[in-house]
Amino acid sequence: MSSDLPDDDPGSDFHRLEAPPEGVPTVVDTPEGMDDALAALAAGEGPVAVDAERASGYRYGQKAYLVQLRREGAGTWLIDPVPFPDLRGLDEALAPAQWVLHAATQDIPCLAELGLRPRSLFDTELGARLAGLPRVGLSAVLEYYLGYTLAKEHSAVDWSTRPLPEPWLRYAALDVELLVTLRARMERDLREQGKLEWAEQEFAALCDFTGPPGADEPDAWRRTTGIHRLRKRRSLAALRELWLTRDAIARERDVPPGRVLPDGTLLDLAQRMPGQASALASERKESSRTRQRRAEQGLLRHQRAWLSAIRTAAELADEDLPEPARRSDAPPPPRAWADRDPAAADRLTEVRAALAELSERLEIPVENLMTPDVVRRVLWTPPEDPTTEVVEQRLAELGARPWQRELVVPVLVQALQAHR
């Protein structure tokens, strides 16, 4: 790490870090360069800072186009994953090391696609939430603990660009420059607050994180925004065929599906099911000029594909039409509880107030104390005998960590026993 770091008490003056003190590393994009990176990182000491850059909004999927790593004794390495079939050799080199990431859930899925998976990790964004920081972005957390702020001008650029411009690489290297030092300061803070064991339980759970379902899931088309507006099974069939057609086009062009055709236009076609090119256009307008332009261009550019998808849906036998979405086993929206189950509504009101007080006292966001969905499931469908042991078992089945159960079970038991 740089010797320019401030003292433990940074005071009120923040230092803007514009470039890595050791300079911007050369991008590793050859087998020889990878061999050097593997040797250096394997010989390094302590945790390894890890980050990844995607081309969200520019390319199909959430593929990583740059991987940044920094470890004591090894320095910073910028890896271009595109020329390599995978990064499993790097995974083996890093296997013994704890990974330090900021907002790990954003990067773990795309790193897993490359064959990289942490065995142990420290998430500085989640750690900041548990430590009670009011702002948890990387720059804000670095300001709080180290007195440094980062330049963030290139966070939303197209990282699939080749060659990557030097200013972008400088930004990428800065993202891992101070992560290991930040981890040490944050760990000390969490220990002093009596929260380190809680954080470690959360970090251990993140090692198994897989991310949301992908486009290859059989019912991925059911996640189309606004699908609830479709009431007829034939319209659902049309949406399915249109969604699959759009996804195939997006994959081939390597662009996000929304750039081929927005969800709103897809729903409009599924509802109307036009049979000829002249009827594809609609009077419906998208929410912005950019989306409207994409809709118009997408309809025109791929009109044969849309008509073919609609025709396929129109010709399906009734028994082959998709069923309406299965009724969710999730509780109804809280606003409906008072009418449908007054006792459940009373339980929810009491628990919300108690958790808000607990959240304020511990300086931990309510959603980190316990996932709201878990709380609602237990309160809406309570066990017949809501003892501490029974409620704790139910929370464990729903994925709550031990530290969460220790804090929240008494709150739930009290409400369940008081409002039967």
From TrEMBL:
InterPro entries: 3'-5'_exonuclease_dom (IPR002562), Exo_C (IPR041605), HRDC-like_sf (IPR010997), HRDC_dom (IPR002121), HRDC_dom_sf (IPR044876), RNase_D-like (IPR051086), RNaseH-like_sf (IPR012337), RNaseH_sf (IPR036397). The keyword Hydrolase applies. Pfam families: DNA_pol_A_exo1, DNA_pol_A_exoN, HRDC. SUPFAM superfamilies: HRDC-like (SSF47819), Ribonuclease H-like (SSF53098). Residues 282-296 have a biased composition (Basic and acidic residues). Residues 232-320 form the HRDC domain. GO terms for molecular function: 3'-5' exonuclease activity; nucleic acid binding; nucleotide binding. It comes from the Bacteria. Residues 1-30, 274-297, 317-341 are annotated as: Disordered. Residues 1-11 have a biased composition (Acidic residues). Keywords: Exonuclease, Hydrolase, Nuclease. GO terms for biological process: nucleobase-containing compound metabolic process. This is 3'-5' exonuclease. It comes from Serinicoccus chungangensis.
